[in-house]
Amino acid sequence: MLSRRLSARLNHLLRHNPAVVLLGPRQVGKTTLALAIGKQKSCVYLDLEDEDDRAKLTNPALYFADHEKELLILDEVHRVPELFQRLRGIIDKGRRQNNGDGRFLLLGSAAMDLLRQTGESLAGRIAYLELGPFDALEVGPAELEKLWVRGGFPRSFLAATDDLSFEWRRNFIRTYLERDVPQFGSRIPAETLRRFWTMLANNQSQILNAANLASGLGVNGKTVAGYLDLLVDLLLVRRLPPWHRNLGKRLVKSPKVYVRDSGIAHALLGIRDKESLLGHPVVGQTWESFVIETLLTAAPDGTEAHYYRTSNGTEVDLILTLPRGTNWAIEVKRSSAPKLERGFHSACVDLNPARRFLVYPGAERFPLDEFTDAIGVVALANELQSVK
Questions:
Q1: Mean predicted confidence (pLDDT) in 207-222
Q2: What pLDDT is recorded for position 76?
Q3: Does domain 6-130 have CATH number 3.40.50.300?
Q4: Three-state secondary structure string covering 243-254
Q5: What is the pLDDT of residue 102?
Q6: pLDDT tens digits, residue range 188-204?
Q7: Category of 235 on φ-ψ map: left (φ > 0), alpha (ψ -120 to 50) or beta
Q8: What are the residue ranges of helices labelled H in 58-99?
Q9: What class, spelled out in words, does domain 136-385 have in CATH?
Q10: Whole-number pLDDT of residue 91
Q11: What is the mean pLDDT of residues 10-15?
């Protein structure tokens, strides 16, 4: 077992909110974390994919009244959407009786569907937290390469061998496509969605070209947009928007798209181990995706993320706008001897960021010029985590 960095934050939110939603893909460790939190206090756990547990909520008001002094952990809560309207009255009644906070911990796997349902019913009564796979700050620098290759899903990362890890990821992909996606109301054929997901893995860190994707799948651009929305909502793909502020430049307006877990991307592409990955054309792209996901996980709440590119090719891989409004410009290179390119300097002239970094696979930190440091991903993630 690895301890999760979000444990303290989750405890804090439960102390100050009647209900907390813990979002994350399936098999990422939401239930394990919730039960660990539950061991610290009296709790009741219901898995709403289980018919017997759903039956206990035939009359939710009575059931919750029987457990009003306990933390109620409701797993896969999106399976019972009608529950949210009932929770509103129960939470308000508890507040009037000075029993308002730490009542419900709701676990769900589909971001937008669950956010919409809770937002409509529980506005002002609920907090949100997203749990991703293991990240670089949880596994440490010594296992960074393993994390990059296998990804951070616990059973993949902790598998005894690379082959077992790869087998778990392939099975995870198949199960997600054939069993889990249809549960969210999607009628997309599993093989079509697999092809689309694999195309995204092949084109990571590239500007989204919906027309090319649509042509490859034999569908139209609107259909591709729907496929992409689904994978984003399931927290499996990240859509990184372009920098949009008016600088008097012609800016690229399409997003970049990344498969959020590098291990899943490698499994989609048939890459079993590090040796295979280092010889694959996608190595630089998947490293960039891994670094960006790591940094976004470590960034403080309220951070906005974009990439910057003009029509003449001036580009920065990642612009982080921190909560106080300062910008960090971050370039990513898969090289042990990284060098800054002219396009990065030109972009920094446009953006005037407060800090500049080039992330590379090494651990040593050193200056590349008077403004920019080369830095390892764990060191930069730690620096982001310490920002107030």
A1: 91
A2: 86
A3: yes
A4: CCCCCCCCECCC
A5: 82
A6: 889 999 999 999 999 98
A7: left
A8: 60-66, 83-96
A9: mainly alpha
A10: 84
A11: 92
Structure tokens at 315: 């580009």
- In this structure, the chain runs to a length of 388
Per-residue pLDDT tens over the stretch 285-294:
999 999 999 9
Nearest to 165 by CA among 26, 262, 278: 262
Q: pLDDT for 140-152, tens place per residue?
A: 899 999 999 999 9
Q: Where do the domains of the chain lie?
A: 6-130, 136-385
Q: How far apart are CA 191 and CA 185, in angstroms?
A: 16
User: What is the SS3 assignment for 18?
Assistant: coil
> Taken in order 169, 173, 178, 181, is the CA torsion positive or negative?
positive
Tokens for 9? 């934050």
pLDDT of residue 1: 59
Q: How many angstroms separate the CA atoms of 31 and 47, rounded?
A: 9
SS3 assignment, position 126:
strand
The residue with tokens 């440490």 is: 140
The three-class DSSP label of residue 275 is helix
